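Friendly challenge for the regulars: who can give me the structure tokens for this chain first? No prize, just bragging rights.
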Amino acid sequence: MDEEYDVVVLGTGLTECILSGLLSVEGKKVLHMDRNEYYGGDSASLNLTQLYRKFRPDQPPPSELGRDRDYAIDLVPKFIIATGELTKILVHTEVTRYLEFKQIAGSYVYRDGRISKVPSTEMEAVKSPLMGLFEKRRAKKFFEFLQNWKDDDPTTHQGLDLDRDSMKTVYEKFGLEAGTQDFIGHAMALYLDDDYITKPARPAYDRIILYTSSMARFGKSPYIYPLYGLGELPQSFARLSAIYGGTYMLDKPVDEIITDGNGNFAGVRSGSETVKAKQVIGDPSYFGAGKESSDGKIRVIEDGKVVRAICILKHPIPGTEDSDSCQIIIPQNQVGRRNDIYIAMVSSTHNVCAKDVHVAIVSTIVETSTPELEIQPGLNLLGAIYDKFVTISPLFTPTSPGTADNIYITRSYDATSHFETVVDDVHDVFKRVTGKDLVLKKRDVEVQE
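First reply, four minutes later:
Bragging rights claimed.
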């Protein structure tokens, strides 16, 4: 390891692998290291043996669950929005040639004690139990307003200014009920809480349009998901990096981040070997997450926690028309919380578990001292649970941009069930590392379903 690199990347989570691939394409000499023996870091997909070894080291997996190799269970559940930013990166880098995708069958929202499908067509909207007859008319006018909006045509604005008026003002203009605001804000715009309502409406408008255009792309739901689990995504970007000369080392302990006399990054030590590089990028666990780092700087701060329950089911989720996959969002108002609860469910049709098995992951931001009780409303919707693995993960945020000392730290994965926040982090770190914006080429390549 005597060579000198432009960038050392630590951890093979999706964020780190996308950055490693993009920087390799830019012509940078990249070395990528991970202390784990598998790709994906916190966003890995594990087989049965790895799953039980991680959560219950003293218990072998039950034989009735089938073959080890049939499983690829995600540690962090997320779906890809069909016309979202991650799809644009996949298409821009042509990583789509290493992956196959399948659509998620339905998107649901919990309201008034039951789950209902988020309407994907006008026909579904008319039949939807989410709204009464008069509310449906008001909602139709609201969606027509959004679809017809043109920045340069004041006749489409109906007296509203998306950059100045709050989303509350927009909802009130169309007289939408609180329950309708809930499902638009949380199941379509995918906000985690209600803070967005008092802010200018433009970001919410962009998010709703993204959702409806993704829905229009495939029908049924706006989400797609890679066959064989989310762990395929980091591996595909690792392959991209390797094509452009990137070097990968799995199962490689990272013992020390070396800095020079001025506190700037100089290299990484693994055992008796040291590698020199100009910059380092890595996930928070490599930079003293949760403890003071060796040079006296705390490089990351804890910014809350996420509780996740990985549940193995022998049946689809009741009330989802026997869907082989779905997302269910429980808006916080419906269960007296500050943050939404997310359920993501996949099955053997996605090549992530044995036949007749379904994997559902329930997650939310922790608000109390009893996190497992907080996801109970989600667990209650699943029916009989065959087995369950609960994790509570701190959310870490870097304390500095890294531009001063060349140490660039990514963020932890949040509780959202989609990748848009991950891609925000990719754009942010890419700009700090290279000094320029990540510009994605527009290509006319369809993501194959």
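Confidence is low (pLDDT under 50) at residues 443-449. Residues 119 and 125 are 5 Å apart (CA to CA). Your move, everyone else.
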